[in-house]
From TrEMBL:
Organism in which the protein naturally occurs: Dactylosporangium aurantiacum
Lineage of the organism: Bacteria, Bacillati, Actinomycetota, Actinomycetes, Micromonosporales
Pfam families: Abhydrolase_11
Name of the protein in its database record: Alpha/beta hydrolase fold domain-containing protein
GO molecular function: hydrolase activity
Record keywords: Hydrolase
Domain KANL3/Tex30 alpha/beta hydrolase-like: 15-153
Top-rank taxon, per record: Bacteria
């Protein structure tokens, strides 16, 4: 079972951001921590989700990916029972961004925040995951210009911000990353 940590600040605005970690990482990644702190400061709530395989101590996610998606959707359903949500924003870094994209419509998300979306495996641009970004849900992708996993192309519903000097870790300018994320998460949108 996935584990989550939910923070609801005083003066909660009705916006909930749900964030997931990368494949081998945890919710304490520099970019996730920076985004969490900045979004909480605006009055939005934040839930940090740890996938079941990481809760169990494993470093590699299970195959197939639908196991991650099912665990994620179960957490979102539980969060909907626990807190009143006017606007749901789902997101994560790397693998967590992929999960958020794949489940955005089913979760009823109004927006998707994708940190270091892994467009392709390093050195294999022919193996693209760009179809996972085609959700129809407004999406912000924050990527480094030196990310070995590639940088997606923008589309009508996908806005891409490329951060100079950043790699896949997005750890050099967490304040800038957080600033861009806050602007996107707190923008007025159709509630879901």
């Amino acid at each position: 079972m996935a584990r989550y940590n939910l923070d609801v600040p005083a003066g909660y605005t009705g916006t909930l951001l749900v964030l997931g970690h990368g494949a081998g990482g945890d919710v304490d990644a520099v970019d996730l921590v920076a985004v969490r702190a900045a979004v909480l400061a605006t009055g939005a709530a934040v839930a940090m989700v740890t996938q079941p395989y990481r809760v169990a101590g494993a470093r590699r996610p299970p195959a197939p990916a639908r196991q991650l998606d099912a665990a994620w959707l179960a957490v979102v359903a539980e969060l909907r029972r626990r807190v009143a949500i006017d606007t749901l924003v789902v997101g994560g870094r790397s693998s967590g961004a992929r999960v958020a994209c794949r489940t955005a419509v089913e979760a009823g998300a109004g927006r998707v925040l994708a940190l270091a979306f892994p467009l392709h495996p390093p050195g294999r641009p022919e193996v693209t995951r760009s179809d996972e970004l085609r959700t129809g849900v407004p999406t912000l992708v924050l990527s480094g210009d030196r990310d070995a996993f590639g940088v997606p192309e923008p589309s009508p519903t996908v806005h891409v911000e490329v951060l100079p000097g950043e790699t896949h870790s997005l750890s050099k300018a967490p304040h800038l990353l957080a600033q861009l994320a806050v602007a996107f998460v707190t923008t007025a949108a159709v509630a879901r």
